[in-house]
Specification:
Distance between the termini: 24 Å
Number of helices: 20
CATH topology of the domain at 304-334 and 448-569: Rossmann fold
CATH class of the domain at 304-334 and 448-569: Alpha Beta
Radius of gyration: 33 Å
Helix content: 40-55%
Structural class: alpha+beta
Length: about 625
Amino acid sequence: MKKKHKKMLVRILLSAAFTGIINILPVAGILRMLLFSGIYILIGYDILIKCFKGILNKRFMDENFLMTVATLGAFLIAICEKSGDYNEAIAVMLLYQTGELFQGLAVAKSRRSIGALMDIRPDYVNIETDGNFVKKSPTEILPGSIITVFPGEKIPLDGIIEEGKSEIDTSALTGESLPKSAGEGKSVISGCINLTGALKIRTTKSFGESTVSKILELVENASVRKAKSEKFISKFAKVYTPIICISALVLGTLPPLFSLMVTGEANFITWIYRALTFLVISCPCALVISVPLSFFAAIGGAGREGILVKGASFIEAMEKMRYVVFDKTGTLTEGSFSVNEIKAEGVDEEWLLCCAAHAESFSNHPIAKSIVSEYKEELDLSKISDVSEISGEGVTAVFEGHKVAFGNSRLAKRMGMEVPLKDNGETRIYAFADGEYMGTISVTDCLKKTAKEAVCELKKLGVKKCIMLTGDTKAAAEKIAAEAGIDSYESELMPADKVKMVEKLISEAESGEMLAFAGDGINDAPVLARADIGIAMGAIGSDAAIEAADVVIMDDDPLKISKAMKISKKCMMIVRENIIFSLAVKLLCLILVSMGYAGMWLGIFADVGVMVLAVLNSVRALKA
């Protein structure tokens, strides 16, 4: 419990104890009024200060203003009637502050969940200098530096393991409880925890560009993008509060004036009391607090599962996902290609592989990386020049004086060359040198284990159609689409073609239906930005894809898309429950108060009770 919550609890307990003591003692008159005034100030001074500041800033139509007017009004009624019964004003403030305490504790619980995610921030980096280890700030370390991470420490920067072997805990980023093995040559990302062995890591990114910084930035900025429900509640409160104040004024004046005109008698005290109770019950704090808290809790719950959502508006949008469009490589498939076969014509196979590895070494595409990995010898980059990567097609370069090209059938067509082999469903890289065909490199990529289940789950959740868009050949696309249970697919697409296809699908969707695109490559950045909801596969995804996306799946598991949709549906159900419950109870109580069937005690119980229940209901969104 935080210090401010402990302080509030002490104030509540002291005020309740002093109220009980004064009621027992034979105290009356001015002394009784002064003692109760002291208790009122003890329990409600912060509300009075906020109300006064709101009036000065001309923003006083809030719960502090309503509570101050209602309780001071009850106090003044007791003075006018000379009853000496100031308990109601004290009790109303006591109950309200008790409700605020419960609300604060619930919000703190939600923030602690977010705080656990934020705890991935590294504190220092170990740098070896003259045989000794010096701790430095991660912000001081440049890419290419060698850092040491000992067992139990957080990995502070993205990099590649140069020396050592260990088990890595990735749960803070991916939600995956089982540790992963990592050794020499393996990439590691910041924010994970090194469990068993010491590691020497060559950093590949500065701290500002590292995975941990990107995640923290996403979490910290998540509250900026408000959902339509949040915006509605904010606008609703601004209109609702003045209407309630006018209604209370009418309730406190018109009925007694009408009675005075008709019967010659008017009980102003009774109607003013009802008007004050009307103000207490009508306070919209349950809605104003619980709706944003529901979205905040959902974002925190998703974060603990390795799903980073960039704002509440995307939590709301995911509930309405009716079309999900997938990229193939790295999204539905593993994205870790391996060279299956090399067929050379007129050249040596080793030379063909050597030439391909040098040309592809400048590309970040998974296929290019698999070819470089297959070439076991060290690359001599002095042999290669004029490298040009053509998005969605392949690469061209000059290798040992020969103009070479490696790519798909579209690249061959661009260069006016014939592809002699028919497509049999494999992913093939066609090789050309000096305008002549010199063979193929076949690579394989398999479907992710959870891809088929992910498609099935999405359809169970109400997704009408799952579609795959890929730059790969028709045969390769058909094979993966059939294995994953995809409804339809389009193959041999350029990045611009994917954008056009998504725009067409969006135009065909019914009003209110959302389209999501899930991809991982730099080529997917434009279509991720164009979709209603862009979902990036973050662990191996490019920085451009992650920047363009609205939701980031940290462990590249397509099944997490359905989990994100479940979190969204649960959050929106909680939001609707809170709105309907709060408005229904308040409307009933307002009618009872206006008719004289409910007093201020019931009013404050209704108000505080609704607020506490709504807040506790909102916290359920933390559990994904």
